[in-house]
Amino acid sequence: MQTHISTTPFGRRQMTLGMITSQLTAKSAPQGATVDKWKVFHSIRDAKELLGATDRSLTLLNALLSFYLESELSTEGDLIVWPSNEALTARANGMPPTTLRRHLAVLVDCGLIVRRDSPNGKRFARKGRGGEIEQAYGFDLSPLVARAQEFEDLAEAVRAEKKAFRVAKERLTLLRRDIVKLIDAGIEEGVPCNWGRVQQTYQMIIARLPRSAPRQLVEDICIDLHGLYVEIHEVLESFVKAQNLDANESHSGAHIQNSNSDPQSESKNGTRNQPEADGNTEEADNVRSLPKRELPLGIVLDACPNLREIAHGGEIRHWRDLLAAADTVRPMLGISPSAWREACKVMGEQHAAITLAAIYQRADQINNAGGYLRSLTDRARDGKFSTWPMVMALLRAKLDAQEPTGKADDRRSSAEAGSGFQVSESLLKSLQKPRFK
To answer: What is the 3-state secondary structure (H, E, C) of the chain?
Structure first.
């Protein structure tokens, strides 16, 4: 006797077009098709977001597959399983009945299983006299066979997307590390470049990156960072080729910050020709008597504390912070971009920033900061200017304001001991002269 195969759900559950679609898909499986049930399950697990499935619903699907004793699903056999809610709860790690019913509905809506409800809604199988199953009511697993290739394609697409996302994030990390360290190297080595502006550009690009970014945004940011990286790398390569530094200079990384190809030679030539240019032998002696090492950042900040008010967060911990603060204060002093570029070209960006910090410290005493910077730039071009006496004059003025009068010798010894360097008597005499006009 023929039995009718139910196509509608039991009780108050409504029939939907999605259920009809799932039933048609289940019938479309090729005759004799066979798939490994756990391989299909793994593909569904990887593509669960695209299918609309949840972790709890997949737990139920895993339990339903465990009730099918064979390891392979075949259209030649009966793919209906009929476990009770109690049995499903036991194999789903104690899932509550209400949660179980809700996630079974999710599996049906995703088209992963098809309901084959009995007249009374119970799940059971009717066997014939020979023990074979004549009719079963429960959940039909046929969609897993019919859509096996679809599940595999979706899972492969998800894996490819995850791999592309992982590669994009790795590229982003490497670019960020390279750019930050190349900027630090450029500042430390005194490479002529507007490093403050480069840092601002880098921060603007990184600011577009939210806490959780999609892959496309990460790739777009990587493109912009790569362009910035190429520009920085080209600047450093050009500087290295032009400098042709020996091994010791390259190892120490503390050469004079100047944009000329041979800073030491030009410094010597400049000081040698200076007396002939203006006849000021004492000033030439002072420049030659200056320390040959770079000004420590701590001394610069002690002499120019006002610059901290402009710095981001009120902190200047590195030369790059000083350069960024100098780039911010330049328009406040009314210094034109051309005057600033010329100062960076002649003095080197680090020394230009120190000079600007000193000008800002005495801004109330300087009527024309732009003209004063151009004058110092011209003197530096002739080898007649150094930032050492300017900073030491500010330190001396600070000590004069803090200590009682009549202790000039003690102040001089304290200044020399605090800075850790020796200066000539002619330099000390020249420091008595006003440096800011």
So the answer is: CCCCCCCCCCCCCCCCHHHHHHHHHHHCCCCCCEEEHHHHHHHHHHCHHHHCCCHHHHHHHHHHHHCCCCCEEECCCCCEECCCHHHHHHHCCCCCHHHHHHHHHHHHHCCCCEEECCCCCCCEEEECCCCCEEEEEEEECHHHHHCHHHHHHHHHHHHHHHHHHHHHHHHHHHHHHHHHHHHHHHHHCCCCCCHHHHHHHHHHHHCCCCCCCCHHHHHHHHHHHHHHHHHHHHHHHHHHHHHCCCHHHHHHCCCCCCCCCCHHHHHHHHHHHHHHHHCCHHHHHHHHHCCCCCCCHHHHHHHCHHHHHCCHHHCCCCHHHHHHHHHHHCHHHCCCHHHHHHHHHHHCHHHHHHHHHHHHHCHHHCCCHHHHHHHHHHHHHCCCCCHHHHHHHHHHHHHHHHCCCCCHHHHHHHHHHHHCCCCCHHHHHHHCCCCCC
